[in-house]
Amino acid sequence: MGIRIYNPTSAGRRDGSVSDFAECTSPQVNAPYKPLLKRKKKTGGRNNQGIVTSRFRGGGHKQMMRVLDFKRKADGIEATVLSIEYAPCRTARVALVQYADAVQTKSYILAPLGLKAGDKVMSGETAEPKPGNCLPLSKIPLGLTIHNIELKPGRGGQICRSAGCSAVLGARDKGQALITLPSGEVRRVSDKCRATIGSVSNPDHMNISLGKAGRKRWMGRKPHNRGVAMNPTDHPMGGGEGRSKSGGHPKGPSGVLAKGGKTRKKKKPSNAAIVRRRPPGRFQQHNG
């Protein structure tokens, strides 16, 4: 697992890099499992009424999503990892596993760091706490790194699913577990919720350099236009002679202030589950 740097044969290749896919099995041997493939629908950033709700989205390469099993409800049944595959719709690698049941069920799961083809994984309360196994938080030893964490029992993993992410199980008390998230936030969840042991694969994803704007277009991202470069009719920060900040604070196209304020709802029900908030961001630090 690492990064392969392109030779500078052109301006776009000069600073570009790509994953070496060393942890993935050969595509000639293990092609994607077709029954678990689903076409990703492109929206172009528009809602069901055709209005752009997310700017600078559109185009991009066609993608086939791998339908992942985030719930891991096949308790007590050992599964064999058939292959570690690249998934075009997510940053982490996925693992195709086959359960040792009567029908030899196959499913995709998030591949933790270090999982290889031929390894065995299991879920349930009796599973061993090793990378790739899914257990309730009440059965996981304290201090272990976990990922794919449920917020409500039975809903499926919702936290720590991107490449290289992991959380730490800190403590348990009165049916609740304290988890330290990658952001530094400490959150309280039910110890009946499930999590997978280990950290998510492909931690070098954040170190990849695209090298040229075209690679971003392949991902469905269009050029981002600055508000100060627009006309006053198009953006509140537009207009003025020369380069101008328009004499106001940064704001979005609708006039809402864009920097410095907290965006989380004050009366959100899950606020009570946050024991310690994450450190303030770049524009939220207080001057002491």
Notes on the protein architecture:
The chain has 288 residues and is mainly beta. The chain is built from two helices and 17 strands. The model has no long low-confidence stretch (mean pLDDT 92). The chain has a seven-stranded antiparallel beta sheet, with no helix packed on it. The chain has helices spanning 11-14, 213-218, and strands at 3-5, 17-19, 37-39, 64-66, 79-85, 94-99, 106-110, 120-121, 134-136, 145-147, 149-150, 157-159, 167-173, 176-180, 186-190, 194-197, 274-276. A hairpin with a 5-residue loop joins strand 14 (176-180) and strand 15 (186-190). Helix content is 3%, strand content 23%. The protein is globular. The protein has a domain at 3-43 and 59-205: SH3 type barrels (Roll), CATH 2.30.30. The two termini are 43 Å apart.
